[in-house]
Every structure is written in C-alpha cells, then in structure tokens.
Amino acid sequence: MATYSNPKYSADNYQANRPRYKESLVNTILAYHRRDNPAAGAELAVDVATGTGIFAQQLPPHFAKVIGTDISATMLESARKAERQSIEYVEAPSENLEFLADHSVDVMTVATGAHWFDIEKFVSEAQRVLKPSGTLAIFGYTGFAHFVDYPQCDKIIKEYGLGDDRLGRFWDRGREVLVEGYRNYHAAFARNAWPGIERHIYPNTIEGEPSAELPPILDSEPNIMDFQVTWRVLRAFLLTWSTLTLYHKQYPERENAAEAVIREMMAAAGSTDMDEKLNMQWEEILLLCHPPQPHA
Are the C-beta atoms of residues 73 and 14 closer than 8 Å to each other? Predict the structure, then answer.
C-alpha cells in the first residue's frame, strides 16, 4: 500500500496511536481453528501485512514460530523496534510469499490490511501455503464508529472519512473493500469452495449490512477490539490515517483536517473536555475460513 510504504510516513506514530486488538481475539481464532479438528497444529503462524507488528506481537504465546510480513521496510523497522518476543519479520508482498513452503502454515492472519491486496492472487497464495487443516483469519476495523451518547457524530466522522470534498477521494485503492465489510473476500472464498466460511460483523452499521446475498453473523459484542477513547485519543488515532497524509500533500496550506473534525464533533456533542471518555461501538469485521482440501 503506497502511503504506508513511503519512508516519510511516520510508522512510529502509527505504532503508538493505532488501536490494539482484544487479547481474547487469538483465542477466538484458535477455537475456530480446532473446532472440527482438535489436533490442528500451532507450529507456524504468519501475520500478513503486519505493519508495525501490532497483532503479530500477540501470537508468540500460542505458536512455536511467528512470522510477520509486510511490503513496507519502514513499517517493519518500527515493528522490530517495538518487538519484545521472537518474531521473524520478512519484507514480502502478501500475494507472493515465496519464502514459505507449500502447505506449511497452520494459521494465517491479516489484521486490518486485506483490503489493500489483489484479492484473487492473495486467496490463491493463501491456499498454497496453508496446511489442509489450516485457518485463515481476516479481520479489521473500518475506523468509523457509533457514538452511543452522541449519535449526531456518526455522520460527521463518516463524511470526514468518505466525503469527496473531505478525505474520501484521497484513499489508496482498496479502502472500499474494508468499508463494505470484506464482502468481496466472502464472495471469493465461496467461489473457490473454501469450507467453514464465517463472516462476523459488529455492530450492524457497516455499509450495506446485513447482506442478503452474503449474510454475516451479527455479533452482539465486539470480537476484534475494545478501543477506549477520549477526544484526545481519537484525535491521535485520526492523525494516523494514510489518507490524511495524501490530503495535506495536495492542500498543505489548510488546517489539519483531523484537528478540524474533532472540533466539529465536539461542538455537535456540546463537549468542551478533550479528556471526556467516549462510549463508542467501533465497526469491525472478522472473517474465518479453511482452505479447500487438495485433490487426491
């Protein structure tokens, strides 16, 4: 993904201010991995598009070996600085993991990154490297949320992120795949006969959901993240958005858009305290499946 690969993009800011994933998420993935096969292995986990290794760092207690891959040398440098466990980081595109042997990976994860891939090429490569008993877990958050106490802010943050007159037209191609709940992936796995497909969403405010054609599982509680924020923390998160960098590359003279939208939302909420705790339901997707069995 071009913006994150730019050496001028602050990977350290990304590492410091992006949400962390729920500690229980690895157990949720492993429960699915072993549901129909209690003996399913845990020798090798590969976190694809690992970025600064935020999710990869949760995997070592559960697997004998963990590898994180990314196309950005800058992000991987930040991952290595933050890493406190034995994770191997490899610079490689997600659609071409040639350093991995066929059918060698027990669990492959993609944390808020699959929307940047060539879907068909990645699905083919994941099928090649996963063991027949393996699991692929694709998950992510859209960056949008339902403000439980200030629902008038829901529209403001979406218009900020998606509006053509705001940041919408500056996203690198692929963002729409995430905003639409990874339905493209659901369809690709169904076409290629991947068994056990489960697509969980929370809450049901994701664009076009629930889909009648590709029905998701509507979760009553979040699986992916429990991101507790104040207006100050929310501002720091918005400053990590890749589209903001591209927006201000074109409009360097304008006020920082993240600062402006925080002020707009606070005004709509009647709030003056940057450290007010916000009750937010973050849009998230969790897609789980197994690879097709190889032909005899």
Answer: no
Predicted structure pTM score:
0.89
Residue with tokens 């027990």: 106
Which residue has 């690969």 as its token pair? 5
CB 105 within 8 A of CB 134: yes
pLDDT in tens, 238-253: 998 989 989 999 999 9
Burial class (CB in 10 A: 0-12, 13-18, 19+), 60: middle
Give me the DSSP letters along 89-122. EEE--TT--TTSPTT-EEEEEEES-GGGS-HHHH
Q: What span, in angstroms and rounded, lies between the C-alpha atoms of 151 and 154?
A: 5
**C-alpha to C-alpha distance for 153 and 137, rounded to whole angstroms:** 31
- Quote the strand ranges of the chain, DSSP E: 44-48, 65-70, 87-91, 105-111, 130-147, 198-202, 217-218, 229-230, 277-278, 280-289
177-201, pLDDT tens digit by residue?
999 999 999 999 999 999 999 999 9
CA distance 206 to 202: 8
